[in-house]
Amino acid sequence: MEFAAISMSIGLVVISGILAILAKSITRGELPPNAEVGFRTKATKASAEAWYAGHDAVLPYLRAVWPIGLGLAAITLVGGFLASADWVVAALGGAAYLVVIALLMAATVTANRAARAAHTASQNE
Q: Which is nearest to 69 in space by CA: 45, 36, 97?
């Protein structure tokens, strides 16, 4: 079952790395509105103001999620080598992915709300 733990951990490390790079790009202002990368919702795509507001609002989540993902990867890896039952590894890895996904869903909701507010404000000017 070590293979499953290694595989799940590698996946979490890759996701965490991508999120760290995304956070750095947003912080530096290097993520303009685009069709490929970012929190792409109807609201964030409504205008440049909405895009930037949504992505600024998401930064605290991204700054928290990637280190959490790395920690969960380590727990999954160690647990995979220590566990005597396959279900323990599956539960650890599954729970780790669920935590990361839940945090990213919360981030998306936050980005969407901020983008809607910014777009509405820019239309009222």
A: 97
